[in-house]
Structures are given as C-alpha cells and as structure tokens.
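Holo prediction. Input below; ligand is 2-acetamido-2-deoxy-beta-D-glucopyranose.
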Amino acid sequence: MVSFSSTKLLLVICVMVISAFSVAIGGKFNEEFDITWGDGRAKILNNGDLLTLSLDKISGSGFQSKNEYLFGKIDMQLKLVPGNSAGTVTAYYLSSQGPKHDEIDFEFLGNLSGDPYTLHTNVFSQGKGDREQQFHLWFDPTADFHTYSILWNPQRIIFYVDGTPIREYKNLESIGVSYPKKQPMRIYSSLWNADDWATRGGLVKTDWSQAPFSASYRNFNANACIPNSPSSSCSSNSATSTSSSWLNEELDNTSQERFKWVQKNYMIYNYCTDSKSWRLWVKSEVQDGHFLYKLLLILRYCGGGVSPEMEPPKKLTPPSLLKESECDQKSEEGWEVVTV
Ligand SMILES: *[C@@H]1O[C@H](CO)[C@@H](O)[C@H](O)[C@H]1NC(C)=O
Ligand SMILES: *[C@@H]1O[C@H](CO)[C@@H](O)[C@H](O)[C@H]1NC(C)=O
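Structure of the complex:
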C-alpha cells in the first residue's frame, strides 16, 4: 500500500513531467485527423477548417486523431444532424485500445423533429464502463455549432458544453475506484445508424427518405500531452503556466453553480441513482443476509476496481457512501469505514 502522502508526491512529480511535454494544438483537420471509414462520406473542407460526416442507408462515416493524448483539455465544435435525426448517433469520444481500454464518451442520440437530442456520457476505466449519465440540452444543437470539451487530468474528468460543466468524474483511486491515467487515448468520432436502440429505446426508426444525414465539426483545439512523440513535437511548444492550467483545473464556485443547474434541470439519467441495482441489493440483503457478497457485487457495479476474485477487504466503504462520492462529488473527508 502506498501511503497517501507518497501518492500525492508521485502525482506532483507526474504533473511536473507532464507539463514539460504539454502542447497546444490548434485545429486543421487535415493535419490532426485521419478519415477512417465511410468511403467518401467524411469530408475535410475549407482548407482543413471544417469536417463533415454523413450517413446514408449504405454506410456511416468516421475519423480519428493522428495523435494519442495522455491528459488534456480538448475542445471541438459540433453541429448535429438537423430535422428528423431519429435513429442516428453522432459519437465523439476519447479511447485507448485493447480489452482493458479507457474511454471518455460523448454520444448524441438523434430524435424526431422538434424532440430533444439526448446527450449520453460514459467513462470507461480498465475496460469497465456502465457509468452513464444522460442529458437534454438547453439549446437546439442542430441550429448552430456548440463547443463540447473534455478535460482529463490526473485528478478529474470534466465534460463541458459551451464552457458549462455537465459532469465530473473524480479520481477516487484512494477508495478503490479505477481511474484512466496510464493509457493514451485517441479522439474518435463517427456518425452511424443505431435505430435498434437509440431513439426511445429503438421504437423510432431512421427515416431513410431524409438521408443523407450530416454532422459538422470545426474549431478543434487541444492543450494536451502527446506521449512517445519526438521531443520536437512535444517540447517545441512547451507549456507555459497558462496553457497547462488544465492540469490542475477544477470547478470553481461559479462553475459549481452552473454544474448543479445542469444536473438538476437537464440530467435525464444517472447510473448512480438507477434504482434497479439498489432495489435488488436491498431486497437480497434483507432476504438472506449475504451482506459481504452483495456488497462486493455493488462495489463492482458502481465503483470498478473491486472484483469478486479479489480477497475480500477487511474493511469496506459502505456502498451508499462510495456511490455518493463517485457520483455526487462528496468530499473525501469524513469517510466512515465499516467492519464486516
Ligand atoms: C426524444 O424525445 C422524447 C420525447 O420528448 C424524449 O423522451 C427522449 O429522451 C428523446 N431522445 C431520445 C434519444 O429518445
Ligand atoms: C467559494 O465558496 C466557498 C464556500 O462556499 C467559500 O469559502 C470561498 O470563499 C468561495 N470562493 C470564492 C472564490 O468565491
């Protein structure tokens, strides 16, 4: 076990190393991205300033970043499929490779004309996701471009929409929740047909008479670290204190207020409060009293990092506290531990 203070020291060292290699990248799509599929349906236009994806009955399309990033603040402006976009999904996310991959997701689920898009978010760490939160937006995302940002630093992941934080996922490794911090990730985006589940759970199908569907991207901007790159590309633009402030970025009071406003008024699904697993847990605990076993299952469901193969810890954090902490930004102070 590493003590808290040495973990902290390690973090400080990491941060120092990272800031030395942080780069600011401004966005020509032809320089920063590769079109990966879609057979001509994805296009880079206006001298690299604009990228469009399209979807028809035969295929969708997609692109990915040339670089991999390990921590960063990444902004992209998107204008989503207008009109009847039911059944379509525009995904914009960071992901590493392999079965134990990490991933930070924005997914935009289309809807019938006049009905709201759903913005679906998720965080995978070590191959484990199931951390969905969904939102409606306070504007029409098809009428104009809006900025969707991912802040990813060693302490937290924050999802922003036009600078308003909508979700925060904290590093809670100290209580056994795994956190993406070792695997570099690429940016990916795609537009595809998901009418088997996307709109009202698959009830509303894609209306192909509206095809081709199209989404647009512009103003890509990243302050990020690019690991394993020749020092020239990493240190040529070595970080000044302002360009690396994202490394310590957290929600200030004003952002906290905005954040609460979104969570209160626009969040439509939160895995943390999904009652299915909780009802199951309470019921079975009451019925047969297999407390430890049930607790492990719940920890596994809501926290990651704890699996049944692990030796049962002697002391456990109550699942309600763990959930609140992972989900509602409870402070780490004042943790209670129970002896089982
Ligand atoms: C579509 O619109 C309906 C009705 O307003 C809403 O309940 C739903 O969340 C919207 N989004 C999706 C993806 O179904
Ligand atoms: C933020 O809020 C806390 C407590 O609510 C307060 O102590 C602190 O002074 C505030 N900071 C700013 C910059 O307003």
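The mean pLDDT is 80. That is the main takeaway for now.
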